[in-house]
Amino acid sequence: MITRADAAVFLDRDAPHRWNPRDRESLEALRNKWQTVPAAADGRVSTADLASMTDAQLIRYWQQQVLVSTTGENYSVRGWYHDLYKDVLRGKRVLDVGAGMGIDGLTFAQHGAEMMLLDIVPSNVANTKRLARLLGLSNCQSFLMEDIDSLKALPRDFDVIWCQGSLINAPFEFIRAEAQALLEHLRVGGRWIELAYPKQRWEREGRLPFEKWGEKTDGEGTPWVEWYDLEKLRAALAPAEFDVALAFDFHNDDFNWFDLVRRA
């Protein structure tokens, strides 16, 4: 449950949020950080550096990253949900928010999902667009989020919004504003699926200020990471209403998982 002290990070659920200079600063800080994306085989990699690879090198590199990210010791981090959702998402229109290298989004496209891979970093978008072409995926597009207002250009009838660790890296007020903009594109009956970090992990790792906890969880240069639980996620999504299909912590409370079905 959220304590009185925790509640200070929340906005009034019904209060509108206006895009402001602090939001732009948060977005630029994120853009600077996430041009270097997680790469299980190598730690992290700059997608700008991937542009210098030949087509054959890039395909091999991406396939290796998917293999290492989803098998062996990493099956319990990422592989399990690839197995769980690859059939669930087939034929669905899915918006992958913070697609990074496309380990999730391109893989689900290979299994028949209609994917839109969204990212805030131009080199990430260029990389997933190139990979989709090389993999022959006509059911996969890439989209650059320049700011929250740019989300208006997205289609308005996605079946799934997929957020794997991408909506925990900025202050709650910013994330709520982004979530509200994204919800305009999720149909009633659609699903909001999100991976986050639980409060238990934040407590275990020393209850650091969120602007410092990011470097502990996601490495040097991470400007912010904030824990989420079901109540806090509901606050970000309100007044939209959701039923809970799944909500649980996993991998020794390092991560938590939410699969919510929109009802109103």
Describe this structure in words.
With 264 residues, the chain is α/β, with parallel strands linked by helices. It has a single domain (39-262), classed as Rossmann fold (3-Layer(aba) Sandwich). Helix content is 37%, strand content 22%. The chain has 10 helices and 9 strands. The strands form 2 sheets. A 7-stranded mixed beta sheet has the order 5-4-3-6-7-9-8. Strand 4, helix 6 and strand 5 (140-144) form a beta-alpha-beta unit. Residues 1-17 have low confidence and may be disordered.
Features:
single chain, 264 residues, alpha/beta, Rossmann fold, two-stranded antiparallel sheet, 37% helix
For the CA atoms, what is the radius of gyration? 17 Å
Query: Which CATH-level-2 architecture?
Result: 3-Layer(aba) Sandwich
Overall mean pLDDT stands at 91
Largest sheet: 7 strands, mixed
Write down the domain tally: 1
Question: Count of DSSP E strands?
Answer: 9
CATH-assigned fold name: Rossmann fold
What is the helix/strand order?
A: HEEHHHEHEHEEHEHHHEE
Q: In which order are the strands of the major sheet placed?
A: 5-4-3-6-7-9-8
| CATH class category name | Alpha Beta
What is the CATH homologous superfamily assignment? Vaccinia Virus protein VP39
Task: Report the sheet-strand fraction.
Answer: 15-25%
Q: What is the rounded distance between the termini?
A: 24 Å
Assembly status: single chain
Give a concise summary:
This protein has about 260 residues and is an alpha/beta fold. Helices cover about 35% and strands about 20% of the residues. The protein has a single domain (about 40-260), classed as Rossmann fold, CATH 3.40.50.150.
